[in-house]
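Give me structure tokens for this 313-residue protein.
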Amino acid sequence: MSVQPKLIIHGGAGSSLKGKGGLAAVRQSLHEIVQDIYNLLINGSSATEAVIEGCKRLEDEPRFNAGTGSVLQSDGQIRMSAALMDGASQRFSGVINTSRVQNPIELAKFLQNESDRVLSDYGAAEILRELNFPIYDPLTDLRLNEWIEERKDNFQKKMAGTVAEAELAEARRGTIGVVALDNQGRIAAGTSTGGKGLERIGRVSDSAMPAGNYATQNAGVSCTGIGEDIIDECLAAKVVIRVSDGLSLAEAMQRSMQESYNHKRDLGAIALDATGTIAWGKTSEVLLAAYHDGETVSDTLEWTGDELTDSIF
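Here you go.
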């Protein structure tokens, strides 16, 4: 029996978007990507294929902190992490602190069929060589200038001033993510990030862990926000497991976000389940997410979040 595909993506979370120009630019970017990737699902692409292509599109968009436009760590280097989880096979793969690659999600894709499925920087570099991927520099002038300014203050901030758009000088918890349900009822999730910026060398993001990216045949979740907060909550896996244990996706998201709020976490999440329910939640001010519910494209950019979660059935 054919299932109506569903799709939700995010470009991070953080503080308020200000200015019509900024809002319009982010909305246009997210909506275009959602529509293009949803077209793939309608035309028969699997959830995993759609997630990979969606992550690549978001990684290639410099306004988001993943792939091109990733933030610099304290030593001035870019190290990116990404993960992919195929819910049908319940198989997780990912790379941690990889460099010189345009699309880290491509490495996670390759590792899906390997016996060693999560690799750190050296292992990821070996895979790059094996696959003959071209060397790529994801640095942008904006990220370099941010790092130079922070260097003047001896990196006193806890994270880089990553932004959804150059003229919006507000902190962003930079991650991108995609969760898809295909016409065969399969779910997949992918997440990619440049990190929080200015971090200690060797710091590991939640994006390459089940805490930040998780999927089964029942549901899939991609997280964004402060990585350590997401890890402490084991957020993505927690939401999916609660669905597997019998809660609705809306209930699982609400309970998990309420716990995160009570613990003073700064994070957000997007999710889909096997029934086609789309859900999202946040404790941060803004969640940069957009979705296709089978009929139209919409987003969460102006969602006030009086409630911690929302969902569409």
